[in-house]
Amino acid sequence: MSAAKRKRARKVAVVGVSLSDCGRVDSATPYALHAQAARRALADSGLDRSAVDGLASAGLGTLAPVEVAEYLGLRPTWTDSTSVGGSTWEVMAAHAADAIAAGHARAVLLVYGSTARADIRAGRRTSNLSFGARGPLQFEVPYGHTLVAKYAMAARRHMHQYGTTLEQLADIAVQARANAAHNPDAMFRTPITVDEVLSGPMIADPFTKLHCCIRSDGGCAVLLAGEEYVPDTAKPPVWVLGSGTAISHTTMSEWDDFTVSPAAISGRQAFERAGVRPSDIDVAELYDAFTYMTLVTLEDLGFCTKGEGGAFVGKGRLRLTGDLPTNTDGGGLSACHPGMRGLFLLVEAVRQLRGEAGERQVRKAGGRLPELAVASGTGGWFCSSGTVVLGRG
C-alpha cells in the first residue's frame, strides 16, 4: 500500500454557521444576502477569510459559483456548483468534506441567498408552473403536471397503499408551527390546528395551503474546515461523521415507487459511514417543502418502517420535547423557505448540537445537549437526496 493510502484522512468539522436576514427582506439583493451570510459565518468561526480556499454555491448567476466568488472577493482553488434542487447543500457538504479529508482543500464555504419572496412582490418574477419543457419533462408538462402536483400524487399513493390519513399529514404542519413558535426568526409563529390545515384553500389535492412550504427571502452559510483549524476556532467543532447521496428520477413514469424516496439510499450510506443507527439520532432536520416529504423521509431514513410514518408522527413526536425533535426551527413549513432550503438544515443542526438554539434548544435527559443530528435534503420531486450525520465534539 502506498504512503498516500496509509495516511490517515483528516477529520472535518463544521466551524462556522450563520443566517443572513431572513423572512421579509425587501431591500437586499441575493448577492447581498450571500455576502451577509458569509461574513457572519466567518465571524462565527473566528477564522480569517484567508483560510478559505474552497467555495460551493448554486442557484445564482450565469456562472455560479464564479460570480458569487467574485462578489465575495474570494479566489478559491476548490469549487463546487452541483445543483440538484433542495438537496444541493447536503450533497455539496459531502463533496466538501471528502475534499478536505483528502487534502484538496483547507476550508470550504457553502453559501446561499435568495429573494424569492421579494422578487414576486416587486414583480421581478412570476410563479412558475414547471421547471421547463425540454428533455424528458416535455412528456409531462403539457398535462399541467406541476411540482406540487407531483408531491400530491405521491402523497395520495401513500394514503392509498398504507392508509395514511390527511389528519396525520396535517399534524406534521401543526408540529412544525409549534416548533417555530419558539424561534424568534421564524416567519410564522402563531399556533395552528389540524382543522385549520384541513380547511385551508386547496393547492393540489390533497394539499391545502398549510401542507405546503412558505415563500420567504433569506440566506445562510456553513464553513467546513480540516481538524487542524479547530484549535483556532471560536466555537466547539461539530464533526461531519458520515454522508450519502442518491438520485432517483426526473419523470414520474421512471419513479419505481411513489412511496420511496432516494433518502432510503443516502440515509443508509450516511448512517453506515458514520457508524451510527437512526435510533442514536437526537435531532432531525429534514427538507419539508410539503408535509408528505417529512413523513416519507422519516420512513426512508429508518426512523420507522415503511408505511408507518403516519402513526409515527403522532403524539407530538416531532416537537421540541418529543421523541425525535424534527425541524426544530419550524422548517420550511413555518420558519423560512427561500428556495433551495437544504443549507438551512445544516445550520440548525449545528446550532442544536452547540446548544445555541435559545428557546427552541433540544435537551436530553438530565438537561444534556444532543450529541448526534442528521440533516437530509430532498431535491426536485424526490429526484435527489443528500444526508449528513453530524456529531458534537
Portion of residues within helices: 25-40%
Number of strands: 11
- What order do the strands of the largest sheet run in, or round the barrel if closed? 3-2-4-7-1-8-11-10-9
Largest sheet: 9 strands, mixed
**Rg measurement, Å:** 20 Å
The geometry reads as globular
* Residue windows where pLDDT falls under 50 for at least 5 positions: 1-6
Give the helix/strand class.
alpha/beta
Give the percentage of residues in beta strands.
15-25%
Order of helices and strands: HEHEHEHEHHHHEEEEHEHHHHEE
Could you give the distance between the termini?
Answer: 31 Å
Number of helices: 13
Average pLDDT for all residues: 94
Domain Thiolase C-terminal: 244-392
Pfam families: Thiolase_C_1
Protein name: Thiolase C-terminal domain-containing protein
Structure description:
Residues 1-6 have low confidence and may be disordered. The chain contains 13 helices and 11 strands. It has a 9-stranded mixed sheet with strand order 3-2-4-7-1-8-11-10-9, sandwiched between helices. The protein is 32% helix and 17% strand. It is globular. The protein is an alpha/beta fold and 393 residues long.
In short:
The protein is an alpha/beta fold and 393 residues long. The chain is built from 13 helices and 11 strands. Strand 5 (202-204) and strand 6 (207-208) form a beta hairpin.
Characteristic terms for this protein:
393 residues, alpha/beta, 9-stranded mixed sheet, two-stranded antiparallel ribbon, 13 helices, 17% strand
Question: What order do the helices and strands come in, and which of them pair?
Answer:
Layout: H1 3-6, E1 12-19, H2 30-45, E2 54-56, H3 66-72, E3 78-80, H4 88-101, E4 107-114, H5 116-121, H6 147-162, H7 166-180, H8 194-198, E5 202-204, E6 207-208, E7 218-226, E8 238-247, H9 263-274, E9 283-286, H10 291-300, H11 309-312, H12 331-334, H13 342-354, E10 372-379, E11 384-392
Parallel strand pairs: 2-3, 2-4, 9-10
Antiparallel strand pairs: 1-7, 1-8, 4-7, 5-6, 8-11, 10-11
InterPro entries: Thiolase (IPR002155), Thiolase-like (IPR016039), Thiolase_C_2 (IPR055140)
Organism: Streptomyces milbemycinicus
Protein name: Thiolase C-terminal domain-containing protein
